[in-house]
Every structure is written in structure tokens, then in C-alpha cells.
Hints:
The chain is an alpha+beta fold. It has two domains: 2-115, 2-Layer Sandwich (Phosphorylase Kinase, domain 1), CATH 3.30.200; 122-232, Transferase(Phosphotransferase) domain 1 (Transferase(Phosphotransferase), domain 1), CATH 1.10.510. Helices cover 30% and strands 21% of the residues. It has helices at 22-28, 69-88, 122-126, 137-157, 212-217, 222-232, and strands at 2-3, 16-17, 37-40, 45-51, 54-60, 99-103, 111-115, 161-163, 172-174, 180-182, 189-191, 197-199, 219-221. It is globular and about 45 Å long. It starts with a strand and ends with a helix.
Amino acid sequence: MIEIEDLEENDNEGIEVPYFDFESILVATNDFSYANKLGKGGFGPVYKGKFGGQEIAIKRLSSVSSQGSLEFKNEVVLIADVYYLQVHAKLQHRNLVKLRGCSCVKGEEKVLLYEYMRNKSLDLLIFDSTKSVILDWPMRFEIILGIARGLLYLHQDSRLRVIHRDLKTSNILLDEEMQPKISDFGIARTFAGKETEASTERVVGTYGYMSPEYALDGYISTKSDVFSWRCLA
């Protein structure tokens, strides 16, 4: 097990995340073979792997990725709290992707392991004329509601208030029952107590889904995610 203190010096909560050695990941993905590649995002390529017969998704930090060690650590710290609740309190929000573990945090290779989403990401369905026909209105409505439930948890009910900052169709994953799950927390921001907004000079994310006040002035709040959600809907 790898403790969060190894990732963030100022974090004292002692939450643990399963650690996998890199050799076992190479075996699980057949040396990151092209046949096991599921897709690619800002972080890097994502591969399908198997551990003990269980399918998982393995996200590998690319050497040319726009995201780096800071975003990697940020994602682990943020969703580790969800993992902790799942294991120790038997709770898990159904609209947030589950973190299964990580690998090589301090080495050159940086890898995150997630639950495997059989229906991949929402963008692969919406923007494919042949696949989009399965998204009838009732199914689309349920997906919209599921994303809203996940945001409500992040904004109001989680241990820390979380603003995702990059909510888009490629970051919405769909399980075998077409339940949506919010993923990719590498550039998310957290707020303690009653804080709900902030300003930043570093505007990151995807412009087509950004609220005007964030894209132009670097002003972020929970409303920023709601704007992105409306773009999805």
C-alpha cells in the first residue's frame, strides 16, 4: 500500500491506495500492447488489463503529456477519499469512477488503475453516427441525471468541495449498464469549509466546455462545472 503522505507532504489524513509494481502491470497489459489500447486523453494512453481475471483500465502518463506529476498526484489524492469510503465505510458514489490503485509514483513511469468501463466514454457514442442511435431520449436523460448526481456529490457532499474544471464527454465513462461515471481529476481544485470560488492565472481544461468567466478571467466556482454540464446536456 502507498500512503497519501508519500504524494503530498501536507496531507496528514493517512488514506491508503493500493500500490502495484510496474512489472505486474506490464504482464496485465501484455507490455502495453496496441491490442489492449482503449484510447488516449490529455494524461496519456489508456489500456485494458487483467489482474486475477478482473478487467481494469490502466492510464499511463505519456512523456509528451500536457499533464505531469502534479496532476497525477492531484488525481490520486482527490479520489483516494472516495476509495477510502468504499473500502472502510462500504460507501461508493455510483457516478464517480473507482480508483483501483497506482504505480511508480516516484519513478519515471506513472500509472493509475481504474475500474474497467465496458462502454468506454460518452464522446465515442455521441460523435459516432452508427453508435449514437442507441442513445434514445430516456437513456440520454438518465445519463444527464447521473452526471448531475456526481457533480452534486463533488460540490456539496464530499469531504472536500471539488471543482472538476474539465467536465466533457470524453471524461464521462459508461459502465455495462450505461451508468455514467465522472473521471479524470488531474486538474480539479478542492475547497475547504464554506469556500466555493477562487481566481487563478492558470486556465486549464477544454475551451468548448469552459464558462466565459473562467476562460476569460480565470474565475472558477461550482458554477463552472454546471456550465460544462449544460454543454454536455
